[in-house]
Write a structure and sequence with these properties.
mainly alpha
């Protein structure tokens, strides 16, 4: 199975996960009161942060060590034992300290769910080895099928008790039951992979525990920083507000999943090219390829950003109900960050091996976000949190840009295709005009959103077709991605 097929399968699996979570967020936001939904989100916050913050980089190490170690069976079994030990330790710590966590998150209802939360953490940590083990062992098709079944189980484990009109705590237990079934399946596959290997791989290498730790620990620390950066604004908001206000914030402070998936997929596709070009000292080649991805991302993200900001007043209540009208302004501010989302930025730093700068910039962004979120919430309340987060994201990406210019010895004028970016933004602004006119007409909200989307898209595509924002190579790349029936648009 070639790389592109593997990439498609894993991307599809991840996309299905995001789709399931998004659809469930719509169902739950309408079913729960804001207080219940905020508590449900608090449980998910605790489980997610606890799961991904204490793995010590072990899942990442599987990709590196499993293909090369001599004692492959022993390695898999030791990884499994290590993950289970971490799961027991972290879940026990969560259980014993839930009163402190409840106090920090300002939600006294969490103490009553201490056991189920700890149980979910225990199982969730165990699940983290499934993807790296399956992909490294070459069982990609099996992984994609089982992961799809997991997604279906996840969806129905929440949706079924909702339709049965169960209480919020019962829904959490249903979800924990689904995690338990998944863990049994993962343990089965982990053991089957372990025992398919011979006791020793004759072509393998002897790797010491010290070597494994020296490789995985920096990744583990970086993962902690990354996880904290994803949730720091939500933790501060929860500390400074009620469960109902937290629910309002989370429903507004969201990034449309497809945008992140497309950006990461493009970077993953180009990462090998960047690494090869850097080894050959072809810095101009790196910049040229990077500019292409930026032009393509700006072509997609800028119109999406403008349309989402424009339509938010209709979109958010239509999706999540009128209870979340207060989330509109949060969503609009948060969506502004998409203007700087035209690359993951750290992809260049990873390609040239400067990962320590990623760590320091990420650490600084966490501290900035904590400080400014607390500060701005004192002045502007809940609205201050997205302002602080967007400002931090922009500063973080600017820091990456400055680092890139120093390593490549170029100026800010050369590091970005500024003309194409500004042109995409201008075209997006112009395309907003007919959508804005339609928005002012009173009729069914969903029909109005559909008409606005059609008018915006048609205007943007016409303008794009008759401008030179994209080069001929860019257009050829886009046509290679799109179905043939849509080639006329490019």
């Amino acid at each position: 199975m070639n790389l592109s097929v593997k990439l498609f399968i894993t991307t599809f699996s991840n996309s299905m996960t995001h789709v399931s979570i998004f659809v469930l967020s719509i169902i739950l936001s309408r079913y729960f009161t804001k207080e219940d939904y905020g508590t449900y989100l608090h449980v998910q916050l605790i489980v997610n942060v606890a799961t991904w913050s204490f793995l010590l980089g072990i899942p990442h190490g599987i990709y590196y060590f499993l293909p090369k170690v001599k004692a492959q069976r022993r390695y898999v079994l030791s990884v499994l034992a290590s993950i289970i030990a971490i799961a027991v330790l972290v879940s026990s710590t969560i259980f014993l300290n839930l009163e402190s966590i409840e106090s920090f998150l300002s939600n006294p209802r969490l103490v009553d769910m201490a056991f189920v939360i700890a149980f979910m953490v225990l199982l969730s940590i165990t699940l983290t080895i499934f993807e790296p083990l399956m992909l490294t062992a070459g069982r990609v098709k099996e992984y994609s099928i089982v992961e799809l079944l997991f997604n279906i189980m996840f969806f129905f484990s929440v949706a079924t008790p909702v339709f049965l009109d169960k209480e919020m705590t019962e829904i959490i237990w249903w979800l924990a039951g689904q995690y338990f079934i998944q863990s049994i399946v993962v343990l089965y596959f982990a053991l089957s992979i372990a025992f398919k290997y011979r006791k020793e791989n004759r072509e393998g290498e002897d790797t010491s525990l010290r070597e494994q730790i020296s490789y995985t620990m920096p990744i583990g620390i970086s993962s902690v920083v990354l996880e904290m950066s994803r949730y720091v604004d939500k933790m501060v908001v929860s500390n400074q507000s009620s469960a109902a206000e937290y629910a309002l914030y989370v429903r507004g402070a969201m990034e449309i999943p497809v945008i992140g998936i497309i950006a990461n997929t493009l970077d993953n596709l180009l990462m090998p090219q960047f690494v090869k070009a850097y080894k050959e000292h072809n810095l101009a080649g790196i910049i040229t390829s990077w500019h292409r991805t930026i032009r393509l991302m700006a072509m997609f993200i800028y119109p999406s950003c403008l349309f989402l900001i424009l339509s938010a007043g209709l979109l958010i209540p239509a999706i999540f109900s009128d209870k979340y009208v207060g989330s509109v302004i949060i969503f609009q501010i948060y969506t502004v960050s998409l203007l700087s989302r035209i690359s993951t930025f750290d992809v260049i730093m990873r390609a040239i091996g400067q990962t320590k700068y990623i760590l320091w910039i990420s650490l600084a962004s966490i501290l900035f976000n904590i400080f400014f979120t607390y500060l701005f919430m004192q002045y502007w309340g809940l609205v201050g949190a997205p302002v602080a987060t967007v400002m931090t994201l922009v500063l973080m990406r600017l820091a990456y840009l400055i680092s890139i210019t120093r390593f490549f010895h170029i100026g800010l004028k050369e590091v970005f295709p500024w003309r194409s970016i500004l042109s995409s933004l201008l075209l997006s602004i112009i395309s907003s005009i007919p959508a804005l006119l339609i928005m002012s007409i009173e009729f069914n909200d969903w029909l109005r959103l559909g008409a606005m989307a059609l008018a915006f898209s048609a205007t943007y595509l016409v303008l794009l077709k008759h401008t030179d924002i994209l080069t001929l190579d860019d257009k050829a790349l886009v046509k290679g991605i799109l179905p043939k029936v849509l080639h006329w648009a490019i």
